[in-house]
Amino acid sequence: METKHIAIYCVTYHSYEVLKDYVASIEAAIRNASEDLQVSLMIADNTDDNQQTISEVSEVIDIHVLPLHENTGYFGAVKKLMEKYAPTDFDYAIISNVDVLLDVDFFNQLLSYNPGTDTGWIAPQIYSQLEQRDRNPKIMQRYAKKKLMILRALFRVPILYNLYTHTVYKSKKLMTHQRGDIYAGHGSFIILTNTFFQQCGIIDYPVFLFCEEIYLGEQCLRHGLKVTYEPSIKVMDAEHASTSTFKRARYCKYNYDAISYILASYYA
Description:
Order of helices and strands: EHEEHEEHEEHHEEHHEH
CATH architecture: Alpha-Beta Complex
Distance between the termini: 48 Å
């Protein structure tokens, strides 16, 4: 049986203890796999002060560490990793935060899943222990330009966004969805096919943080690739190890900048 090659590109920011649990969950899933596979884990360390040396070793994971030691943002760090370790060398390339844990059956489910040749992105079940729900699918349909403009306006005035989160957002119902095609998955754990990189190239999103899902959804849309939600492939979300520490003003500014870029690039 042909060995499958899987790359995991992850970014850590003041999350060294969380990283240990993340790596342990990958190891457990590999040991439980019924098929031959080779997993390469590329770690970008965005920690810009009080840095620690990442010395993770594993008998079953090929681990590489890129000690950036400056906060280059989520996809900024991913791009640097991909420039050094080409995703086209792998059957699947996963982009991930480190505050998630792989289900022990993760690789069995991924390798038994047969995406179509036109599939670019597989969105797994990302179960939130805090919210008691699956964070996927993130976005079912492409946002209307008007909706993005309204969101951008809310983020421009933090007090308005704060009002929104305590009224309209809280009133939204949690929904469950069947497997199938969607517009975009959640950004905390992204599974991209080799076809995605053959068609779209490596990640090139020059925004510090946020709207990564829309960027990838637009890349797939532009290149005629499907985004598929597959809940049998599971990870658990350990809840925002990095972004939860942002002050509201910074959080709003980063979102405002991200939406502005998306509007200029894909909705002009």
